[in-house]
Specification:
This protein is α/β, with parallel strands linked by helices and about 210 residues long. The chain has helices at about 20-30, 40-45, 50-60, 70-85, 95-100, 115-125, 140, 145-155, 170-175, 200-210, and strands at about 5-10, 15, 90, 105-110, 135, 160-165, 180-185, 195-200. The chain is globular and about 55 Å long. The termini are close together.
Amino acid sequence: MKIDSIIFDLDGTLWDASGVTARGWNKVLEESTDIDTEISDDQVRAVSGLPFSECISKTFGTSTSSIDLNSLETLLDKAEKDAFQTENGILYSGVISGIKEISLNFRLFIVSNCQSWYLDEFWKQFGLKQYFEYGTCYGDENKSKHEMISALISSFSLTNPIYVGDTYGDAISASNAGVKFVHAEYGFGAVIDSVHSISTFTDLLIWCNAKVT
């Protein structure tokens, strides 16, 4: 059956904004907490794809038994958002031209576990929203990724979508939603099985264009 739509993950699939996030978080750690550590870009990448609360818990939950993770989460979220006011995330090569081209033949969507403002920043920074029919995230829905994918498929009457993501969690979410998964192996995670793997974003265009006819 012909693919009719493509649902994208965000982090590790369309862009890498881990450096901006790390710098925002480190500002909080330097100024507002007793946590004596510095967060690297790779530490952010290691938790990307999880809802924000889980990112914070996994990163800082064992730093000290006395830390108030809820308060820290609020501080980190604000600092991260502030950091995005002066810095841009880094789009993967070929994304802008690729999205424009691929939107001519496929309906495009985003489903991410990010915060609401984070998705808004992506739209704002690169002017790509016009090529997507819809985008949603955990910050909007407070639902698991597979639930968001399933709801989107139902709401937009998609018949044969694929989900493009970079992590094992993305693969599981696609499977739970009954969607074929394409692995962006240039991203943050490893995946055992997928219907197809792409080493660059341009590979996705080549593969999808072959599916048009």
